[in-house]
Each structure stands twice: as structure tokens, then as C-alpha cells.
Amino acid sequence: MRMIMPKMGNISKKKRRKKKKEMKRRKKKGEKDEEKHDDKVIEVGDYSNMEAPSSLKSLCRYVETTLLPEDKLLQFTIDKEVFGGDRDTFLLPEDITQFAGMEEIGATVVAVYMRYLHDVLKQANMCSMVGFIDPATVSANSGTIAERSRLVAARLQKTDGEQIFMMPYNPGRHWILLIVRAKKETVYFLDPLPGHRVVDEEAKNIVNSAIKIYNTHIARAGRKNVIWKTLSGTPKQPSSVECGYYVMRFMRDIIMDPSLGFENKYAKGNQEASYPQEAIDEVRNEWAEFVFQIIKQGNY
């Protein structure tokens, strides 16, 4: 299997212009976030005060000494075994520094960790049990509901039906996790925010339609309504910016249990405290070490 095919960070002028526009847009967003979370914003070079795993600090140094001076980004391909199709991935310098600073994160950062978790599944011989849906293709503003439903359905069809599929979803500046069990027409909803949470209607419509398409594909009439279960016993984020990190940790915890007993584990009232920072840093360290693998393979 082709694990990762890294490419040189210098890309075509057209793509570069596109990425620079994206970088400017994200820079503006970062400035807005800085106003809201100025107590958490850390300068890239301020390593002594940065509360991050050493691997992430090293990655930030690499950004400062190599990527930024040479106007580079990390470009690589995530193999089709992970999301059902090859995914061209562009990791920007600010993706790394924002992740190191515990700021809000985007779909690319989450997708890179899912790529790492795919290796964990392979080592545990669990790829036939758990699959992933690319968060960038299904979250808000990534296409019409019909288009996103077809993408989810296509992913569900590339299985024997026994797999569960993890689908991080962002309706707009917040990450949740949906777990789709197509064969049982059941979807689990995990939200790291405290309080009574309800599923985003758009996400619900996307997955409901995808399961209907899947039923047609396997020539099954299916039930009238898809079953939705809210697993409210998940650990809860302490403030407004940790949702992406919590969703990554949810996925990690779920696949580390070979019995996939997440439904009972996260039942209401079972576990509602926040993760200790060490648990989040474990995820951040794994992410950083995996990105270093990409760098080494790509000869950046």
C-alpha cells in the first residue's frame, strides 16, 4: 500500500496564488481570533512560554527556520485507503503554529491526525472495523447537501457494511463527531461542548440522505427513519477553542478499545469532566511526530 507520497513544497504559480489568498484569509481570521483569545496567543519564537510537547516546539522551529523563509508549505497525498479517494493535502505554516498554540483548528489538521490513526488501525488489524470520512468534504460550506450526501454514501459503499465510520463535522467554528453505522442505520452524535446539545440539522440531512442512498445501493428498503443517538457522557471542553482537539481525542479513545464499546462508555452521566491537558498533549505529540515523518519522506 502507498502510505504517503510526499511532494516538494514548492507548487505551481496558480496553486501558490490560491494558497496565498487562503493564507491571507486565515491570517485575518487569526487576527480576529487573537482579539478573542489574546491570553492564549503565543508568538512563534516564544518557545519558553509555549505549553506544548517538545515535538510541537521543534515543529514550530522548523516552520520559523525553513518553511517561512523559503515560502514553503507541506504538500502530500493521503492514500485512498484512508478516505476512499486520494486526498491532496496542503499543511500551511499557520496550521502548525495554531495547533501548537491550542488555537482553533481546521479540517486539514484533523484530517492529518485521522491519517495517523489509520496507521494505528492497521497495526491493530482493525481497518475492517473502522473507517474515516474526510471532514473537509462534508462540513459546512463545502458543497450542497446533496453533493455532500453523495460523497458520504460513496464512502459507505466501499465497505461490507460492518464498519463504523468516523465523521468529524464542523457546522461553523465548532467541531463535533458523528459515528455512522450504516448497516444498522444508526448514527451516534458526540459533542464536546457541555449542556444539552442537539445535532446540526444540515449534518443530519446529509447523513440521513447518505444512508438512503446506501440502502438503495445494497437493495434494502431500510427503516423509515435513521436512528440518532446522542452520547452525552463524553469529556467536555473547558472553553470555546478546544473542540477540534477533543474530537481528535474521542477518535483515538474509541479505536484504542478493540471492542468498540464507545456507546456504553459515553452514555449519559458516565464521564463529563474535561480531559486533563496531558491527554490532549498526547494527541498533539502524535500529530507532530507524524508530520515530522512527512517532512522526512518529502526531503523538505
From TrEMBL:
<feature type="compositionally biased region" description="Basic and acidic residues">
    <location>
        <begin position="30"/>
        <end position="39"/>
    </location>
</feature>
<feature type="domain" description="Ubiquitin-like protease family profile">
    <location>
        <begin position="89"/>
        <end position="254"/>
    </location>
</feature>
<dbReference type="InterPro" id="IPR038765">
    <property type="entry name" value="Papain-like_cys_pep_sf"/>
</dbReference>
<dbReference type="Pfam" id="PF02902">
    <property type="entry name" value="Peptidase_C48"/>
</dbReference>
<feature type="compositionally biased region" description="Basic residues">
    <location>
        <begin position="12"/>
        <end position="29"/>
    </location>
</feature>
<keyword id="KW-0378">Hydrolase</keyword>
<dbReference type="GO" id="GO:0006508">
    <property type="term" value="P:proteolysis"/>
</dbReference>
<feature type="region of interest" description="Disordered">
    <location>
        <begin position="1"/>
        <end position="39"/>
    </location>
</feature>
<protein>
    <recommendedName>
        <fullName>Ubiquitin-like protease family profile domain-containing protein</fullName>
    </recommendedName>
</protein>
<dbReference type="InterPro" id="IPR003653">
    <property type="entry name" value="Peptidase_C48_C"/>
</dbReference>
<keyword id="KW-0645">Protease</keyword>
<dbReference type="GO" id="GO:0008234">
    <property type="term" value="F:cysteine-type peptidase activity"/>
</dbReference>
<comment type="similarity">
    <text>Belongs to the peptidase C48 family.</text>
</comment>
